[in-house]
């Protein structure tokens, strides 16, 4: 079981990825973003997740450089993820999008590059591009985001390389047990976005009761639940005290009974679009 913030899972290609990281969805360019990334690195985070569509790769890059300099660690000690947007899902367009993300981030490579959404008729060409980038050693790992089981099955029919990651909406109201079982069977690591359901679970009485027993916050209980389920998680915050608090989950363990009680909150509810029905 994970014992600290730097603990990693080993992806099916042997690359080590931190179990816990910082997400920056909807955080705009500027000092707040740069300080959040720097502060996360300063406080022990070694994973940062962004995407082209977030429009903040420049600020993330600046925060990374500032954080590396302040802590005195090398680029290789950090795991950086970005994602190709729907409008760039073609072989050449995806290669170009990757180059653009690298330029904005100010990096020579990414640790993980993902297809953001499974746009029908386009994601296979994009995957071929990711395979090329991977085989050329320009990205350490490749994967997908928001893929259902049938999307993964369709992709793997023609793929030379299996996705290493499927990053999906995942929280106690959407526990995705079937998808996780499929991913485990095929060696694909599940990763959670919106693990706190955009704050909608913080007033849940069941979670509050468990939190009080462990003298933790509801957010900490949910994030611990993620990790004990073997799911990589990347909560978003721009406030240093919250960044620290979110990561303070390695000094306790939920019981099997508590894990099941939290699983029982599942209602297959989403705060984001269904990957079978999205329009952007």
TrEMBL record:
Q: Which UniProt keywords apply?
A: Oxidoreductase
Gene Ontology molecular function: oxidoreductase activity
Q: SUPFAM superfamilies given for it? A: NAD(P)-linked oxidoreductase
Positions of the NADP-dependent oxidoreductase domain: 31-265
Report what the protein is called. Aldo/keto reductase
- The residues listed in the UniProt record as binding substrate, with positions renumbered to this chain, are 116
Q: Which organism is it from?
A: Lysinibacillus composti
Tell me where the transmembrane regions lie. Answer: none
Q: Report the active site residues.
A: 54 (proton donor)
Q: Does the keyword Nuclease apply?
A: no
Q: Which InterPro entries match?
A: AKR (IPR020471), AKR5G (IPR044500), Aldo/ket_reductase_CS (IPR018170), NAD(P)_OxRdtase_dom_sf (IPR036812), NADP_OxRdtase_dom (IPR023210)
Pfam families named in the record: Aldo_ket_red
Chain positions of site Lowers pKa of active site Tyr: 83
Q: Which family does it belong to?
A: Belongs to the aldo/keto reductase family.
Superkingdom of the source?
A: Bacteria
